[in-house]
Amino acid sequence: MQEWPLRLSHVLDYGSTVHADTEILTWTGSGARTTTNAEIGRLAARLANGLRELGVRGDDRVATFCWNNAEHMAAYLAVPAMGAVLHPLNIRLPADHLAYSANQVADKVVLVDGTLIPALAPILPRLSTVEHVVVIGDGDAEPLAAAGKPVHRFDELTGAQPDTFDWQYDGDETDAAAICYSSGTVGLPKGVAYSHRSIWLHSMQIASAGSFGFAPATRSLVVVPMFHVMAWGMPHAAFMTGAGLLMPDRFLTPEPLAAMIAAAKPTHGAAVPSIWTGLLAYLNAHPTDTSTLKEVVVGGSACPESLMRGFDEHGIRIVHAWGMTETSPLGSIARPPAGVTGDELWRYRLSQGQIPASVQARIVAPDGSVAPRDGQTVGELEVAGPWITGRYLDSDEPDPDRFDDGWLRTGDVGTLSADGYLTLTDRAKDVIKSGGEWISSVELENHLMAHPAVLEAAVVGVPDAKWEERPLASVVLRDGASATPEELRDFLADRIPHWQLPERWTFLTEVPKTTVGKFDKKVIRRQYADGDLAVRNLKES
Amino acid sequence: MQEWPLRLSHVLDYGSTVHADTEILTWTGSGARTTTNAEIGRLAARLANGLRELGVRGDDRVATFCWNNAEHMAAYLAVPAMGAVLHPLNIRLPADHLAYSANQVADKVVLVDGTLIPALAPILPRLSTVEHVVVIGDGDAEPLAAAGKPVHRFDELTGAQPDTFDWQYDGDETDAAAICYSSGTVGLPKGVAYSHRSIWLHSMQIASAGSFGFAPATRSLVVVPMFHVMAWGMPHAAFMTGAGLLMPDRFLTPEPLAAMIAAAKPTHGAAVPSIWTGLLAYLNAHPTDTSTLKEVVVGGSACPESLMRGFDEHGIRIVHAWGMTETSPLGSIARPPAGVTGDELWRYRLSQGQIPASVQARIVAPDGSVAPRDGQTVGELEVAGPWITGRYLDSDEPDPDRFDDGWLRTGDVGTLSADGYLTLTDRAKDVIKSGGEWISSVELENHLMAHPAVLEAAVVGVPDAKWEERPLASVVLRDGASATPEELRDFLADRIPHWQLPERWTFLTEVPKTTVGKFDKKVIRRQYADGDLAVRNLKES
What sections of the sequence does the record tag as coiled-coil (chains A, B) (predicted)? Predict the structure, then answer.
């Protein structure tokens, strides 16, 4: 077979010519701005010429600080196709983390949406390697001046440039094409480099009928940000397949999302559950024509059954998928087998989904052994494959805490069934390791929160002399409700194995939360360690 | 990203576990024999163990001489996954060509279907490198004895073997996995080696929604033989996606095909046009339940519009595709753009189709320049990509007659449109090179055969002092009909450019044909050169 490296320059060529008329729509707040793939292709060439003028050479890094829009799409294609490396900065990271990531990879140029200047400006002076800033669209650029770096207008930089560019087709397909950072809840974010090859293979998976099924008839509403795991691979997959995209820019609240669905008629969509939760409530209250939208992919966190059922009633099928920054991200997608119905169907729909052929998965049990694929044995999920990262950018070698003999340790805990479906129950750091067995904190919390008196519950592992760890149940009661630890323990006893029942109980006025609203369990662990919690121990009583 | 070679051992693992219950059905003449993917996986392991016992090591070649069936499927997976190379012998090749191909690649073992013993036996003594013969199923093995090679029964060789095997996951993904020979109409066949990587990537394309869309809901009727371009990649794609297959074994005539469609309910099918032509006539005469069958892919030669329209009336969509042994084979597939209707729709459906992102195509004009993608400029089609061969096995270097600076010269002549659709009009060897322009022999023939008096017409290029070549029209009139060269020339004059009108005309009682029924134009050229034809030259008259 020919030696033909899988380089994204071919994807740019292909999408902008064979699918020249495919549309990339960008929402403006009042309507959709249309850019054809052919126009994106010419814009990409002008951008590449402009970046060369700014001194971008070889595998220099080019950062973006942008919403999902046509100009960001052009950068997605132009930067890797010219041989440079794209680094979409996650605009939602704290300033320290943004500066850390930009400096770690040595971003040379930053493209910023005019509407995001106020967010970038305070951080810009700390981006020590950045030599040029390019502002896309309007917006007062004055706040950027303090950093003392040249500021260019995108239209001026690209306007007079040639519509063609000498794209780089040679080179190794394993060269880096793009970099994203995982936003861990603890510590600094960790950089992951995607190669031309990994993006190509992942795009082919997005095109697979059993995954997203991208094809020329698709128009996907890409709510998942382009600064978050490459927008789940959809921009490159779209150019590879002729699928069209609908980009919401900064309009991410339910009302404009509903308006753009009615006006721009997407067939497909992708976002985290919280987006769809908000949209569902809006659609239920405001009748909207969503008839073109047949399927939305949900990932990023577990999807509640109520959300799926709610969208079912609008004729929109939610398909659950699992992945992470480290996995490009498609690790699994929950399409139930043909013919299953009822509870079984829902079990499949609510799982994290089935692995594709290019993703190997295994569950490693608490004792370090590889668990059977029985859908029962709980352990940490490890994955391998051509679009799974082999290391982080902070180290030349794989960190043994995160990699296990070539496999990525995902930090997710759950089971794997014989037919390749993942069911994840916990983060590894939250699982409770009791006497060589694992107890899912999330499962205990879900059962506790089903008790009528309980508003919130958080369960963490605390040290235990005999069992290594035991669960501590922290409960917030509803206003005016009352329940004793004994009553709650009896309630649980009907629902979980006896050895998992917590002995230690504490009542809180509120569960501590992180800035993004997740239970902040490390605070509870610290309060417990410091003796700041009033704990009842049923075993001792 | 992880260094994770794309090896078919992973495909075997994946399909036989994650899609363990997927069915591979083999038609027996009276019903379907069911083998699950899990059973195929165990059978593959037993076969690999058996082949090791026969001395298959490293990249030894293992040939098959088999119909499409479950055992052939096991060999398709086992042989590459153990690190050896599969060589499906084309049972329809002449004995000389079969012996040439088997000896060229040094086949060590041949697996033969019991029903094909009579076909293999006369050739076997000439397969000089073959050390063992393995007979699948029943059948008198006595005729094989003359070759003096050990003959084994498949069931005995594999029956007592372990259900597991130490599959080879390491090694280079560019290692050869399988070999097929192109059956050129002239000269010896030419061997093409497919790599693990090329089969993997091609399988992902077969899974793409815009190509075959293989997914767990698919059950494909694989009429195209597994000894012909790897059955168009469907066996490996099936194991990669969970698609099921319906294998017709030796039952390739319309009546059993109709019976197996009604009984085994495929959703999809693939074969050359002649198969579908026969089936259509049968279905029209014998009402059959084909309601599950939604789409069939047709390739191998041009598909007549009447065939497509005929199947449309049965609710079965014919999708035209183009490829060759050298292209794995998927080069293009004719899915019309969304929204086109009427004549435009039919123009797209009747084209050879649109190239996917992994296939580069260009038209090289008669003067050697790359033609514009205008759908008008005619030239030879050249292709490149990761599943296009870079050389033939008869040479370590690319033959410059068949390769052009890394591109494969397909020998097909036609046009390429701006939106990447191929329209092929001729084989390069049949095109008529007149005064620096090309005349399509096929187009002239089609127009001539539309004349009511004409039964058959073959047009070939013959030497011309002024124009280099000019067309010679050879016409067979219908019984009792009459027409003069002048009348036929006038008929053509309304339909083609004036400069393409043939001056030279001859009437034949029958067009000479090859053994597979194609016009044998080299016979006409020789007869003309030898002065054996009575030719009228209108220019001279």
Answer: none
Identify whether the C-beta of residue A206 lies closer than 8 Å to the C-beta of residue A234.
yes
Q: How far apart are CA A517 and CA A505, in angstroms?
A: 23
Residue corresponding to tokens 């099928």 = A317
Q: Which CATH number fits domain B332-430: 2.30.38.10, 2.130.10.10, 2.60.120.340, 3.30.70.20?
A: 2.30.38.10
**Whether the predicted pLDDT of B425 surpasses 90:** no
Domain boundaries for CATH 3.40.50.12780 within chain A: 8-22+33-204
CATH 2.30.38.10 residue spans of chain B: 332-430
pLDDT digits (tens, 9 = 90+) for A3-48: 999 999 999 999 999 999 999 999 999 999 999 999 999 999 999 9
Q: How far apart are CA A330 and CA A355, in angstroms?
A: 9
DSSP per-residue codes, A359-422: -EEEEE-TTSPBPPSSS---EEEEEESTTS-SS-TT-SS--TTTEETTEEEEEEEEEE-TTSEE
pLDDT per residue over B178-222, tens digit each? 999 987 656 789 999 999 999 999 999 999 999 999 999 999 999
- Please tell me the distance from the alpha carbon of residue B412 to that of residue B431, in angstroms, as a whole number: 9
Alpha carbon separation from A219 to A212, A214, A275, B409 (Å, rounded): 11, 8, 19, 36
What is the average pLDDT value for chain A, to the nearest integer?
94
Q: How confident is the model at residue A427 (pLDDT cuts 50, 70, 90)?
A: confident
Whether A397 and chain B come into contact, CB under 8 Å, resolves to no
Token couple for B55: 């001395």
The predicted model gives A67-82 an average pLDDT of 98
Q: What six digits make up the tokens of B235?
A: 């066996």
Q: Do A210 and B242 touch (CB under 8 A)?
A: yes
**Under an 8 A CB cutoff, do A2 and B195 touch?**
no
**What pLDDT band is residue A300 in, cutting at 50, 70 and 90?**
confident
Q: Domain A432-537 is in which class?
A: alpha beta
Say which of B18, B195, B408 has its CB closest to residue A419: B18
Region(s) of chain B under CATH 3.40.50.12780: 8-25+33-327
The pLDDT of residue B58 is 96
Interface of A with B in 172-231 (CB under 8 A): 174, 193-195, 197-198, 201, 204-205, 207-210, 213-218
User: Which residues in A lie closer than 8 A to residue B216 (C-beta atoms)?
Assistant: 210, 335, 337-338
Q: How far is B385 from chain A (nearest CA, A)?
A: 6
**B30 at interface of A, judged by CB pairs closer than 8 A:** no
Which pLDDT belongs to residue A186? Answer: 63
pLDDT reading at A245 higher than 70: yes
The whole-model pTM stands at 0.92
Q: Kindly report the number of other CB atoms within 10 A of residue A487's CB atom.
A: 12
Q: How confident is the model at residue B400 (pLDDT cuts 50, 70, 90)?
A: confident
Q: What is the least distance, in Å, from the CA of A30 to any CA of chain B?
A: 27
> Quick one: fold of A8-22+33-204?
Rossmann fold (3.40.50)
Residues of chain B in contact with residue A18, where contact means CB-CB under 8 angstroms, are 354-355, 357, 419-420
Q: What residues of chain B, 230 to 269, have a C-beta less than 8 Å from chain A?
A: 239-242
CB contact under 8 A, A18 and B215: no
- State the count of interchain CB pairs (< 8 A) between A and B: 155
Domain with CATH 3.30.300.30 in chain A: 432-537
Please state the ipTM of this predicted complex.
Answer: 0.92
Closest C-alpha to A440, from A467, A465, A421, A414? A414
Cβ atoms A390, A403 nearer than 8 A: yes
| Residue in B160, B541, B215 with CA at minimum distance from that of residue A338 | B215
B65–A contact, CB cutoff 8 A: no
Smallest CA–CA distance, residue B387 to chain A, in Å, is 6
